[in-house]
Structure formats: structure tokens, C-alpha cells
Write a structure and sequence with these properties.
The complex is a heterodimer. In chain A, 0% of the residues lie in helices and 58% in strands. Chain A contains no helices and 13 strands. In chain A, strands 2, 4, 5, 6, 9, 12 and 13 form a 7-stranded mixed beta sheet that branches. The model of chain A has no long low-confidence stretch (mean pLDDT 92). Chain B is 0% helix and 52% strand. The model of chain B has no long low-confidence stretch (mean pLDDT 91). The chains are: A mainly beta, B mainly beta. The interface between A and B is medium-sized, with 27 and 24 residues.
């Protein structure tokens, strides 16, 4: 199973709502990532978890709150978002470390398309 | 500063034509990693290839080939005999070598390839 799943596929929320995005993988990967991708732009790294601990936070506003409850699951809790937060949110996972001197490739999910109204 | 440039924003080719996607990167590191990803309309990024900075050997995988030239800081990608299924956005990416930072993937802006039947 080389799949990263993300739910929901689409989400529309108001600026006062609280919602969560979910990501799951069963490949035994210990590194998990959240990216934000605006239309016609490359993905931008938001958070990295390594062995269920937050290792990188790319100065993301606190209205985005990541959580890694176990090695297979990654959540992104959303609260009081702004319309400019509308984007495709991608989750990825990879093995930790290097293989043959190269970082392992990241496996990406299909993303959650978020619209904030 | 680290940066990836993909000068071609959009390319259209007729099916069965060959097409080369350019990637130029900037880094002061002597050790680094380069990647190519494909993003079809479905949204998920698909890993294509990875290279470390010491491996300048060109690679061929089916209709895909990559030309890495350290002297010109380029890592170009060629699709031979293009097919409609190749239509996607292609991202070139750079990852630093330090464990504390090689999770930070620096993506180029992407090249949107349309293959016309």
C-alpha cells in the first residue's frame, strides 16, 4: 500500500468555523508533512512531523494547528481562517533519513481543496 | 540563497513530439538533492526522480530522461514521444543536505505541459 489518503476532498467553511483536515498513511513512514498550494503556484511547506514530533513549523499562523496523534495519522485543525487561506492542502509522508545518500521521496495525497467564505 | 527556476511557464506540444523541461537551480551548498515531481489535474504530486549533487550521470526511464549538468546548475527533463497522459504540471525541486533542513523542499514555479492529440 503506497497510498496517502486525505479527507475531505473538498471543504467550504466560514471564517468563524472550526474544521479539521485528516491525512493517513500505512506505509510505516515516520515523517509527515503539510503543504499549502495556491492555484498555479508550487506547494509551500507548512509543517513537518518526525516520529510524531513537530520538527518544522514554517512560521504558519496559529489559526492552523497541526496534530500527529500516531505514526499513521496527521491532522490539521483550522480555526478562524481568512479567505486568503483558500487553497489546496497537501499531505505527504516519507521514510526518515537517507537511503544510498539520498533523502527518501515523499508520497503525496490528493489534497483537500479548501474554500473559506 | 537557494532557488529553483523553471523558465517555461506553459508548453504545448503535439502528441509524439519530444519536449524538454528546463530547471536551473541556485545553491551555495556543495551537497544537495534535486527532484522532479509531476502533478496531474487530480492534484497529487507524483515523484519522478531524485539525484544528489555528486551523481552527474544522466538517467533514462522509459520515455523519460534527465540531464544533470552541475557546471550550469541545470537538471533538465526530457519526455520522448509525448502522450496525452503526460499533460500535467511538472515541478523541479531542491533539498538541502543538512538533516535539520533537508525536509525543506524548495520547489520551482512549475511548468504546465499540455500534450495535444
Amino acid at each position: 500500500d503506497t497510498e496517502v489518503t486525505q479527507t475531505p476532498k473538498h471543504l467550504v467553511m466560514g471564517m468563524t468555523n472550526k474544521k479539521s483536515l485528516k491525512c493517513e498513511q500505512h506505509m510505516g513512514h515516520r515523517a509527515m508533512y503539510w503543504y499549502k498550494q495556491k492555484a498555479k503556484k508550487p506547494p509551500e511547506l507548512m509543517f513537518v512531523y518526525s516520529y510524531e514530533k513537530l520538527s518544522i513549523n514554517e512560521s504558519v499562523p496559529s489559526r492552523f494547528s497541526p496534530e500527529c496523534p500516531n505514526s499513521s495519522l496527521l491532522n490539521l485543525h483550522l480555526h478562524a481562517l481568512q479567505p486568503e487561506d483558500s487553497a489546496l492542502y497537501l499531505c505527504a509522508s516519507s521514510q526518515e533519513g537517507l537511503a544510498g545518500g539520498l533523502p527518501y521521496e515523499q508520497y503525496f495525497g490528493p489534497g483537500t481543496r479548501l474554500t473559506v467564505t | 540563497a537557494q532557488k529553483v527556476t523553471q523558465a517555461q511557464t506553459e508548453i504545448s506540444v503535439v502528441e509524439k513530439e519530444d519536449v524538454t523541461l528546463d530547471c536551473v537551480y541556485e545553491t551555495r551548498d556543495t551537497t544537495y538533492y534535486l527532484f522532479w515531481y509531476k502533478q496531474p489535474p487530480s492534484g497529487e504530486l507524483v515523484f519522478l526522480i531524485r539525484r544528489n549533487s555528486f551523481d552527474e550521470q544522466n538517467e533514462i526511464s522509459g520515455r523519460y530522461s534527465w540531464n544533470f549538468q552541475k557546471s550550469t546548475s541545470s537538471f533538465n527533463f526530457t519526455i520522448t514521444a509525448s502522450q496525452v497522459v503526460d499533460s500535467a504540471v511538472y515541478f523541479c525541486a531542491l533539498r538541502p543536505w543538512m538533516k535539520t533542513s533537508y525536509d525543506k523542499v524548495i520547489f520551482g514555479p512549475g511548468t504546465s505541459l499540455s500534450v495535444i492529440p
